[in-house]
Write a structure and sequence with these properties.
Elements: H1 3-13, E1 17-22, E2 28-32, H2 33-42, E3 45-46, E4 49-50, H3 60-68, E5 77-80, E6 87-90, E7 100-101, H4 103-108, H5 126-136, E8 139-140, E9 145-148, E10 153-154, E11 157-160, E12 165-175, E13 178-181, E14 184-193, E15 199-202, E16 208-214, E17 220-226, E18 232-238, E19 244-247, E20 250-251, H6 254-264, H7 269-285, E21 288-289, E22 293-317, E23 320-323, E24 326-354, E25 357-361, E26 364-367, E27 370-373, E28 376-379, E29 383-386, E30 396-399, E31 402-403, H8 406-422, H9 444-447, H10 452-457, E32 476-479, E33 497-500, E34 507-509, H11 512-521, H12 530-540, E35 547-550, E36 557-560, E37 570-571, H13 573-580
Parallel strand pairs: 7-8, 9-11, 10-12, 11-12, 12-13, 12-14, 13-14, 14-15, 15-16, 16-17, 17-18, 18-19, 21-37, 22-23, 22-24, 23-24, 24-25, 24-26, 25-27, 26-28, 27-29, 29-30, 32-33
Antiparallel strand pairs: 1-2, 3-4, 5-6, 19-20, 30-31, 33-34, 35-36
Amino acid sequence: MDKNVYEFIAAQTGEKIVERKTCQCWEEFAITDKDMEFYEKISPVFGSTKYQIPAPTLCPDCRNRRRMSWKNERKLYRAKSDFSGKIMISMYPNEKWYKVYKEDEWKSDKRSPMDYGRDFDFTRPFFVQFKELFDNVPVLALDTTAWENSEYTNQCWYIKDCYLSFEVWFCEKCYYSNYMRNSTNCMDMLNCNNDQECYQCVECFNSYKLKYSTKCDNCSNSYVLFNCKWCSDCFGCVWLENKQYCFFNQQLSKDEYFQSISEINLGKYWGINDAIKKFDILKKSIPIKNLNILSGENCTWNTIENSNNVFCSFDIRESENIRHCYGIYLAKDCFDHTWWWNNAEKVLECWAIWNNVYNILLSSQITESSDLIYCFNSRHGIKNCFGCIWLHSNEQYCILNKQYTKEEYEELVPKIIEHMKSIWERWEFFPVSISPFGYNESVANEYFPLDRESALDKWFKRQDKEYPINVPEWTETVKAQDLSDNIDDVDDEILKKAVICEISGKPFRIVKPELEFYRKHNLPLPRKHPDVRHLERLSQRAPRKLYLRTCDNCGKQVISVYPADSEFKVYCEECYNKEIY
């Protein structure tokens, strides 16, 4: 974040900058008095001694990048189980140094993660010992729970008949989607909740038969909407509420509306794409607010709802006292935390912490646990543990997966902390060098893309081999540009072929439920690989960077996710409310 933005935000919120630092990326960033108050509040206490957490050495973006480099959501491989040798779908390739089991094997293995516990060695760094533990404790090939007929998914819970979907919960028949909740019969979706029969939507909620739309709520039977609420039978509209039969923001009669729709021919690839181009022109002509904050007090950044005291955080809902966080729902007192939902409190420098957690420091993928430091993938009642991996059975007072008494634990942990301080293993998140994933496999590459050379320069690993998991080598191919333009002309022979993406050149398949969905909803076949479509959906979200600029109407200085040279008209909140309402 630009230092001038920091200065502006601090002045607006009344915070004092107490220290300025330069990150390893050469970005200057600031530490405020409120930051230091938070570190003081969350620093652990053993006995009568508080072990003060110091200010970070990296800027907020680099800290977030480091956390994200530990999470692979979408890269799947065909690999062999290290337990049985059976072929399986895995988020880990064959070329690895750790053990990977199928879910049923992992659960049936008589060994416990505690069987791999070891003493702490004060002659060696903590992270070296943590990696050795990681290399020995078997991990799950896919982190998916309670699934049915959904082999090609990852990081999913309670799903049925889903395909190539990731971070999906309580869903059925959802395809090529990320961050979906409580939805049915949807395809190519991103960060949506409680939707049915929807297609190519981003951040849309409580909607039915909505297609090609972004940031909409309670809309139905509509196409190509942006920031609309409670609309039905609308096409190509922006910033509308409680409307019906609107076409490119013009009110029509019912007959006029359906006549206009019929002239587009939505089942033709170029018909819908030409309409989307026209819509993009309309969208850029209507002012947008510099920051999207709804019912928020003392908040900065974007997509914040019903929250208070949110500082430099993005996509925050129903939360308070949040700093430098991303994707947070129902949380309190969290700092440097990426991706969370449902009741978290006192969290520092963590990735993917969810469902009733308390006092979690420098950890990843934790649920229903408390008082953990440097733990990875530990769940269901884990308490008072340090440096543990894959604990799942209410363990307490463990260090490096070894059991201790309460007294032994509280005596040994402070000694480990002092040892880490003495060799400059500071209070920071796990280093990228011991992540099990290559940078290009991780979520980090989606938000902070790096080419191969740049990633290696920053000490990130790379995974350079491709393992197509669902396209056999003998499959006949067809170029995307040679596909039938109209869905009515597509026969079942397409199910036997691989389509060559018009952007990436990578092959992908059309599966039977997918083809049935296109036919049912009169949608043209896609011409781009699912990974390309996913990146395009990500690009439809507001940028995750703040800029200092002026209001395009009154000239007032504001901060915004849209830079000064943006194609959008950006208004301050006061001007926006006068214009729209």
